[in-house]
DNA sequence: CTCTCGATGCGCACACTGTACGCAGGGGGG
DNA sequence: CCCCCCTGCGTACAGTGTGCGCATCGAGAG
């Protein structure tokens, strides 16, 4: 029956001819990447499969491969996509510390908003050459060059390493918390007995674990800011004008 | 035919009864973890499967599950295993900078020797409570407490974040290089044209990419040492005795 | 000695993954 | 008008982690 059409339209030229294409902007690399980021944000890196992503876009899994060579390439694109969210202030020369702090905070916020980012970076690093990553680096370079650092890349790598390391640790922690389904404070409370026992015969650690955590979010904010100040102090010592 | 035995011994009580068990120490959690680390080192994190690991140990895939609850747990154990390789000097009070530097270098060396470490840390963080990770943390805490820092954890987290971030980036880069099959210098040489083109209209980046890389290994060593000095300088400013 | 029991290893099966391949259909250029 | 190329998809394959139940074996009880 109906030898011409395989299954979609029983009769050619009916009411809703290609109605789907009208409301869905078909399939495009941009739409795929956007939806992939949404899925990654929602359920983490192990929950993103080509089949599920295709289904979300009203498409078959293998259709995606017309726009994206491979899943790894998709991840590269997703990484570059979220790098576009990081705000690096333009170099205005005056207050490089404030600018660097703002950039670092923006990076951290992005990494915590997209908790899969760090783990993907760990597998592929910053070796990508995506446009957003490029302009991110360029703006950072401009900032530190403008501040008078003779080797801006060194400064960038130092502060970026700190920010990446701290954000990675935080993101991993928050992922663990999220998997438990509890609030961060509840999770900590439930974990405390086990942790204190594990730490019992390590005197310095026991001391560190003794304090009660009242506001975990503020505590993490503080830690990040503290370390950032340390790094920026160390860099300030190396800025020619200063000494 | 031989209704009793399914397939292994055609005749009971023959010459080589249980010969295999004699030379192979059976299967144990320790042996599994050890071999898993070997496989991870050799071919990276995506090449480790329970089937292949089982085969390497003359065992079936599912036999491993008698000793390890899940693959994730195996990875936790592997992480703790390699944390045992990191050498943190005992606190001797005098030269905390030298001790911290040694610990940081040892961490980096371990992370580069086991390049899968960073990517796993990105997925699970330092939330593990394994014994080696515990004593690693304890020794670090002792070191900084002995140096007179009032909040040793803050100092630890700062320097550790830097070290993790830098090591992660390096490990990811080295993994990319290794996949190409070329030496690091050759890979860089081959990449230069593409990189310089991608960087063409970013003036500060172009400047940074202009220099020729003659000894990539030494360059990476330098970068790491530079950033580490920056961080330690920043910490030194906060040590009570110093100011 | 026999009998039983707990620990260990393993084959099978299931649901799921990334992706190669070749076919169908529709829009744009000759 | 026809043709061709681009896009989407169904099928298929090799591989994954792991639950389940059975076979085996060493040790201890009678």
Description of the molecule:
The structure is a homodimer of 243-residue chains. By secondary structure, chain A is mainly alpha-helical. Chain A folds into two domains: 19-68, Arc Repressor Mutant, subunit A, CATH 1.10.10.60; 88-181 and 213-242, Orthogonal Bundle (Tetracycline Repressor, domain 2), CATH 1.10.357.10. Helix content of chain A is 64%, strand content 0%. Chain A is built from eleven helices and no strands. Chain A has helices at 19-23, 29-43, 50-56, 71-83, 96-113, 116-124, 131-146, 152-180, 184-198, 203-210, 216-236. In chain A, helix 4 (71-83) crosses helix 6 (116-124), helix 6 crosses helix 8 and helix 8 runs antiparallel to helix 11 (216-236). Chains A and B meet through helix 6, helix 7, helix 8, helix 9 and helix 10 of A and helix 6, helix 7, helix 8, helix 9 and helix 10 of B. Chain A binds a DNA duplex (30 and 30 nucleotides) through residues 4-6, 8, 18, 26-27, 49-51, 59-63, 65-67, 70-71.
Tell me the layout of helices and strands.
The structure is a homodimer of 243-residue chains.
Chain A (H helix, E strand, L loop, with lengths): L18 H5 L5 H15 L6 H7 L14 H13 L12 H18 L2 H9 L6 H16 L5 H29 L3 H15 L4 H8 L5 H21 L7
Chain A binds a DNA duplex (30 and 30 nucleotides) through loops.
* Proportion of strand residues of chain A: under 5%
The greatest interface between two protein chains, and residues involved on each side, is:
A-B, 60 and 60 residues
CATH topology of the largest domain in chain A: Tetracycline Repressor, domain 2
Largest sheet: number of strands, sense, barrel closure of chain A: none
CATH homologous superfamily of the largest domain in chain A - what is it?
Tetracycline Repressor, domain 2
Number of strands of chain A: 0
């Amino acid at each position: 029956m109906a030898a011409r059409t395989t299954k979609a339209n029983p009769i050619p030229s009916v009411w809703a001819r290609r109605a789907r294409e009208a409301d869905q902007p078909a399939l495009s690399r941009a739409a795929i990447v956007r939806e992939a980021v949404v899925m990654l944000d929602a359920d983490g890196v192990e929950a993103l499969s080509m089949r599920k992503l295709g289904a979300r876009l009203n498409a078959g899994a293998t259709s995606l491969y017309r726009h994206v060579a491979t899943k790894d390439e998709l991840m590269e694109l997703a990484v570059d996509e979220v790098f576009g969210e990081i705000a690096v202030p333009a170099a205005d020369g005056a207050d490089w510390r404030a600018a660097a702090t703002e950039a670092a905070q923006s990076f951290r916020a992005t990494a915590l908003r997209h908790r899969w980012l760090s783990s993907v970076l760990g597998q592929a690093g910053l070796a990508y050459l995506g446009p957003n990553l490029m302009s991110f680096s360029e703006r950072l370079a401009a900032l530190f060059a403008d501040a008078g650092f003779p080797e801006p890349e060194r400064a960038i790598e130092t502060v970026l390493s700190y920010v990446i390391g701290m954000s990675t640790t935080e993101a991993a922690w928050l992922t663990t918390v999220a998997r438990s389904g509890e609030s961060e404070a509840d999770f900590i409370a439930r974990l405390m007995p086990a942790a204190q026992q594990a730490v019992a015969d390590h005197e310095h650690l026991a001391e560190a674990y003794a304090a009660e955590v009242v506001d975990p979010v503020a505590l993490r904010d503080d830690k990040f800011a503290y370390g950032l100040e340390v790094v920026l102090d160390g860099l300030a010592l190396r800025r020619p004008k200063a000494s």
